[in-house]
Structure formats: structure tokens, C-alpha cells
Sequence to fold (385 residues):
Amino acid sequence: QQTKEAIAVAQQTETPFIVAITKIDRVGETEINKVKNDLMQLGILLEGYGGNISWQGVSSKTGEGVKELLDLILLAADLEDLQYESTNPGRGYIIESKVDSRRGVLATAVVTDGVLRVGDEIGCDGAQAKIRNLENFLGKKIEKAEPSSPVLIIGFKEVPAVGTQFVVGIELSANNESVTNLRIQKTPVIKKTTDGQIVVNVMLKADTSGSLEALSQVIKSLMLPPGYQLNIVDDGIGEITDGDVKWSPNIIIGFRVKVSKAAENLAKGIKVKIVTSEIIYELIKNLEEWIKSFGREAISGDLDILAVFGKKAGRQIVGGRVVGGEARNNTAVEIQRAGNNLGVARVINLQQQKQDVQRIETGNECGLLVETNEEIRVGDHLIFK
Fold:
């Protein structure tokens, strides 16, 4: 699916491209031809298959085909006759950004026109900088970067978003209003929506802007249990600090980041859950498991209503199965429907096989006489405190 999306973008933007068929150390000619046929079905006609799109088989494991691929890239660039004007204001695109505890905000960029120099003032939507240092792809300091050069920019005040275009000098002034006003606004922490849904307030932290964007997309697509709603109160790059905890989200999700000692101590004191991992899958799994118990105080029993037998004078006879803990006679309970609390009730009689009992353990069915003003329905739960 990723390949199909990349092809669609390249075709829509009329961007020249080369096809690299990977893992050729593990597959034979038959599999490679299958890939070519699949591409043909998508309108990608390779050289030798009725088209003029260059391709090269490569192996990242053995290095086979990599030199030939690089030669193809250089040839394609020559054919495009790419030009730039050194006197134009420098411009380019941010391709990655992160916060370094020693050096501040670091932005990796590619220059597309003009020349970028140390001391230049640059801006893009949401961030601006006066360049303190430039480094090439080898990590060496340089005084200027020309088009097609990947470069590390040091000097941003805020973390620039991946994919945004930066410009130098006078164009910064024309764009300064949007730069200033496009700051992320934090979302208020709320406990319940107007329709009674339980809100899970989440804060996201990651090591880079690209990682943060990926994490945010995965979290937003998470399927929550009925009656729950996700609210991302804030996101950011860098370690989890006590300042993050002071926002009092229910849980802070950290991807490839550290947690400061002050944040750990404060989180314990005000009961903010912090989960970190190097693997997004593990973060999602831990979040899903934590949500299952979120919003419910410690309970001694959970009874699923399987049958109802009418209601009279504030009393109702129901039948159910204990799905957690135990059900007890002469006990106050909460009535829950789809995760929402409908009201309170009191069990005034508990029976098993038509015999009065004082308690019923998990896995057993029972009948109950409940005193309540609410109408209990099949599928509701009685929560024993």
C-alpha cells in the first residue's frame, strides 16, 4: 500500500522517478518479473517492458546494484538539466527535526534554490531561526549549503514541522505573520463529554518530528472501548519533563525519549501514568491495556445483566453472570451502560438456584432483587464497590 501511495504522489506531481527493486539477494528472476508486471498494472512501464522508466535491482544486505542505482540517479539528474540561481534567496524543505539537550533544536533540510549561509535568518510555517551553525551529511561544520545539499541547521527557536518549506531573508518578513500565529495550542484537559463519555487525556512525546507525526496518526486511529473518547492535550519533541506532567494528562506516551527524575516523582504524586518504549507497537499495546481499567475505581465485582423480569414500586428482578470479582447481597452498586454511569442501586436479595446466598463468585449466574429508580436493561453492568 505504501508503494501505491508513493506512485500516486509521483504521478500527480509529475515527479520523475527511478524504481529500485529490493532484496534481490533473496529472490530470483521470476519474482523480479512479477514485480515488473505488478508495476505495469499500476501504469508504471519499466525499460524493457514497453516503457522508459529506469529501474535497478538492489540488495541492502550485500550492496549489489547500489553503485548502478547511484549512477542511474546521476544520469536522471543530468537529463532533467536541473538549474538554480545562486543569487536567489535560499529556500528548501525541512525533512526532519528534533530537540537535542545540548545543542537545542536541530533541523535536517535540503536546499532547493539559492544558497544557505551561517547567519541567515530563515522562517517557515510555525518556526523561525537565525542560523548559528550548518553541518553537512558527514557532521562537519560548513559556512554555506547549495541546492541538492542535505544540511543540518542549528538555530531554530521552535521545532519546524516536517515537509514545510523554509525561506531566507526578505521573504521571512512577508511570511512572518503566519510564522508567529501558527503555534500549537494546547487542548484543555477534560474528564467527561456532554454526553457522558469518559475522556482519556493523552500527551505525546517523541525524539523527532517525524516520529511524533507517525505516533500521533497511530494514536488517533486507535479503536477505543464503547463510552471512551481520546483527547490529545499536547504533543512535543524531547524528554518528558515535570512541565509536561504538570498539565495533568491521564497518560503520557513517550516514543524513544527519556523521562526526567523530576517528572517521574511528580507523576507518582499526582497519579499521571507514563509509558515509554522504542517500539510504537508496544506503546499502543500498553495504552490499550491501561485504557481498559481507566476511569473506574477499584471494584470488588462486575455483573453482566443477561435477563430482566419487570419492575414495580422501585424494585426490579434481574438475572446475570458475574464477570469479575464477586457479587454480594445487601450492597450498593452502580448501573453502567456502554461505559456510562446511569445511577446507583442496591441489591436487597441475591439467589443462586433459587436459594438465598450472600455472595456469588466470578463465572457464576444468579438472580437479584434490586432497589432502584433506573430501568435496568439486558447488557447493562452492575458494579460492586
Q: What stands out?
A: The first strand starts at residue 19 and ends at 21. DSSP finds eight helices and 23 strands in the chain.
